Every structure is written in structure tokens, then in C-alpha cells.
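Minutes, project check-in
Item: structure for the 271-residue chain
Input as provided by the requester:
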Amino acid sequence: MEYKEEKKLQFVLEYYKHGKLDSAKAFKKITGSNHQYNANKSIISILSIAATLLICIVSYVLIKGYDGSIVTITANEGITKHYMPDSTLAILSKGSSVNYDADIYGKWHRNVNMSGKVYFSVQRNDKIPFTVTGKFAQINVLGTEFEMEEIQQDSITNVYVKSGKVVFKGKNTENGIILTKGMSGTLKEGNETPEISKSIFSNPSAWATGKFIYKNAPMDAVMKELSLFYKTHLYSSDHYKTLTGEFKTDNLDDIITIIERTLDIEITKKD
């Protein structure tokens, strides 16, 4: 694109904000005057300028691929944390991504697109709800902590709510379900409305929070969850005892030692 044309387009974008053309400022810039002219001439002039600028804008978008200030975060190397402008935290599992428009996020809406598996800790804002949209589903919240996972090869979306409340619905439907603390939901291909489901384990978001929290959990359930998380096989010498406690996910051997000493049991690990 020639230099002069680029300068003109930069002028256009200066007065084109968030989908609205400020024709008054643009007219003043071009004419260098605030004076009112004949009503008909003034209207015709402004409309002509607006039409010309709009054509330039469309041409610029098509030629340059202008996308505003879209922020895209992709977890290429592993679990990735990202804070949005309102301090909402997104924790992305490896291979997942989120994107949003930083120019308008938190001003008119808090809309985020995602793919893969992402854990959100949303800052509460009663005036501007938080909306996350995937390929198949959408979540609307005010302030909460939840995990959303889309398994694209199976066309399934799973949602788990750690705290607060969310509305879980299909991407292109109006009807959804309300999930509260500890609840899970699943949307399958071909269904318009998600279904309430039961989490297999007590800590489905341990990968993001870095913690296992148990309250009177049967040892068999604890062993299964830890086995899956650490990709090993754990067996307890006592199947009837229950576990209450909080453990960091950093080191499995430390967790095993603490459980054994606390409950006076023996845990066997087979890789």
C-alpha cells in the first residue's frame, strides 16, 4: 500500500472507534471549521464524508486484516497462567488457548473465547457478566471459579464449578442449566441443553489449583484419583478408612507418606 494511502487510512481509524464513526470530529478535521453551513449542504457533506470514510475502513480491514487489539494466549509448553485486565485469572492446560479484545474487555462486556481445557477464577462484577465461549458451548457468570473443557474429537463440553454459580448452555441456544459449587455438567453433540453430571473425583481441577482437598473421602476413591493424576497405580492396605485433609500436588511421595502416617495404613505404588 502506498504511503499516502496508508496515511489516509490512519486518519480514518483515528475517528473510527469501536464500530462508531465520529463524523463531527472527522468533518472538523477536514474542513477546519465548527461553523454551521446551510442545513442541506452540511448534511450532504457529512454524509458524503462518512460514506467515503466507511469505504476506506472496509477496504483497510479487507486489505490489512485489522483485528483491533485481540490478545491470544496459547499454552504451547505446559500449564500457563494469564491475568486479564480485570484480574480474572485463566489457567490453561497444555495445548489450550484463550483470546479476547483488550480494548473493550471490561468496558462493555467481558467476552472470552477458548479452546481446550481452561480453569477460570473470575473477578466479580455485577454490572458486566463474564462470558466464555467455546466451539460448542457457552458459560455466563458474575464471579466464580470453574473449569471448562472441550473435547473436540468427541464434540463434548464438560464444566465443573469449584465455587459460585454459572449458566451453562449450548453456543447457539437460549436454554441452559444452572450449576453451583461442586456441580458438573456435560453437553454432548446433538443435544441443545447440557445435562447435570457427576464428577468422578473430588478434585477435577487439581491440575490448575495445585491442591487436593478431601473431606471424609473413601480411600479407594483417593487412590483412584491420585493414580490417574500421577499416571501410576496406588493401592491402600485399608479400603474402609476415610481421608480428610489438604495436600499440594508437588510431590506424590510426600502425599503418600503423610497419608500412611496419619491413617496408619500402607500404600503400595506400582508403575
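Outcome recorded: Confidence is low (pLDDT under 50) at residues 1-21, 33-44, 49-66.
No further action items on this chain.
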